[in-house]
Amino acid sequence: MGRIIAVANQKGGVGKTTTSINLAACLAEKGKKVLAVDMDPQGNLTSGLGVDKDSVEKSIYELIIGEVDIKEVINKEVLENLDIIPTSIDLSAAEIELIGVDDKEYILRNAIDQVKDQYDFVIIDCPPSLSMLTINAMTTADSVIVPIQCEYYALEGLSQLIHTVELVKDRLNSKLEIEGVVFTMYDARTNLSLQVVENVKDNLQQNIYKTIIPRNIRLAEAPSYGLPINKYDPKSTGAESYMRLADEVIEREE
Ligand SMILES: Nc1ncnc2c1ncn2[C@@H]1O[C@H](COP(=O)(O)OP(=O)(O)OP(=O)(O)O)[C@@H](O)[C@H]1O
Ligand SMILES: [Mg+2]
Q: Is residue 46 lining ligand 1, measured as CB closer than 6 Å?
């Protein structure tokens, strides 16, 4: 049965989407059946996996507002072993359209429940907010991966995020846990990155992945080709590190 992981941090630009795309693609390359879900109206996961977001007719938006069935929104095999549910900019209005709708926190879970047996992993990329969309992702997930950028203020907002996970666990999804924190955009040339890692390790009582994702230009370039890093430049340090992260995620599963 599929393990469902939400990639969340309400801080913008910390590497959620880069981690979602490349973790999903590396798990798929290792032979796992993966569904990647784009819960962010910005659509960076959708375009980063080569799906033209402007030509998507049935997206997660239509699913969330109840217009279509989940099977209609899954794009099969965008890469071997990798299916995706694309998003659309319309998703930004979903929160308002859901006002007054019963059980709106469970919409994504009820949909994913119908297909999760077909996958080893479901990876959900969250928007940079603690909105209803993120709550839906956390209500669906078994666990949350939190990317942390190796920059000043890395810890800022983390207590709110952890509090949100605890609230969701208490009220909506008792199985939810924080699977781990992953450091991103580590720059070995500066002391700052090292200091941030040490500081977070000292102050955060959470699992931390051994794999640290380096700052690597190839990771930033790959989305404009619609490719994950393991297809764009498999020998890059970015690809090697996301392959190792995939190994760690699989180990935790076992
Ligand atoms: N390890 C890395 N090395 C170099 N560039 C990176 C790395 N990780 C992410 N980036 C770049 O940093 C920017 C932000 O990354 P990303 O989009 O993954 O963050 P995000 O948390 O999903 O952002 P948002 O909050 O807007 O959804 C992007 O331009 C991305 O290409
Ligand atoms: Mg993103």
A: no
Structure confidence by residue, pLDDT tens digits, 207-234: 999 999 999 999 999 999 999 999 999 9
| Long-range contacts at 114-119 (CB < 8 A, ≥ 24 apart) | 114/70, 114/71, 115/35, 115/70, 115/71, 115/74, 116/1, 116/2, 116/4, 117/1, 117/2, 118/2, 118/33, 118/35, 119/2, 119/33, 119/34, 119/35, 119/83
- Does 213 contact ligand 1 (Cβ within 6 A)? yes
Residue 248 CA to ligand 2 centre (angstroms): 22
Residue 3 identity (one-letter amino acid)? R
Instruction: Give, using CA atoms, the residue closest to atom 13 of ligand 1.
Output: 13
For 9, the domain range is 3-253
Q: What is the ipTM of this complex?
A: 0.99
Strand partners, 36: 84, 123
Residue 175 burial by Cβ neighbours in a 10 Å radius (0-12, 13-18, 19+): exposed
Q: Give this prediction's pTM.
A: 0.97
Please count the structural domains in the chain. Answer: 1
User: Which residue puts its alpha carbon closest to atom 16 of ligand 1?
Assistant: 15
What confidence tens digit (pLDDT) does each residue in 18-51 have? 999 999 999 999 999 999 999 999 999 999 999 9
Tokens representing residue 200 in the block: 């977070």
69 CA → ligand 1 middle, Å: 31
CATH code at 231? 3.40.50.300
